[in-house]
Amino acid sequence: MKSSKLSSMVVHSLLAATLCTIGNVSIADTQQVASVSPEEMTKLVASCSACHGADGISPSAEWPNLAGQKAGYMATQIKAVRDGSREVPTMSVFVQDLDDAQIEALSEHYASLPAAGGPTMASASLPGANIRGKCISCHGVEGKTVNQEWPNLAGQKKEYLEAQLLAFRSGSRVGPPMNNIARMFDEQEIKDVAEYYSQTGK
């Protein structure tokens, strides 16, 4: 009986410790984002706006929309550019001095903005509709993923999507699942699937 009670106490203690740890991580993450003042956020967003738009919708086909993108994905990519594991020369100069709290705050800010386009699907008559099957398992039927570490594709710039798929296919951008998947497409299929997702959500 004593052994049973002792085991029960140990289990409850471990469970309590685990819950406290999870709670502390969540609180720490929240405090990290909250540590960026409104004034500082205004400056950070202003530094991004020239390329990505004040509302997170880029004025250029060359640069991606950020509005409505997954916060986890954006934070991972910004940190990769900052740390040099992803090479984006035009962006590295803007993020090289950002700390994790600033990156997390920026990512949450852009994730909270309305994404480009609306809720509708792209036309099934587009060529890309016939080859998007390779994308659905990660990026969703409508180009909206449920995983924080994968990007939404719906409403993204066609030219940007095409450039990234070509980079994955050539290996100049490294991402093990995407490198293999992109090599399944020829150049015309890459154009078609980029066009399809750019029209999804509009």
UniProtKB/TrEMBL annotation:
InterPro entries: Cyt_c-like_dom, Cyt_c-like_dom_sf, Cytochrome_c_Oxidase_Subunit. GO terms for molecular function: electron transfer activity; heme binding; metal ion binding. Residues 1-28 form the signal peptide. This is Cytochrome c-552. PROSITE patterns: CYTC. Residues 28-114, 123-201 form the Cytochrome c domain. Keywords: Electron transport, Heme, Iron, Metal-binding, Signal, Transport.
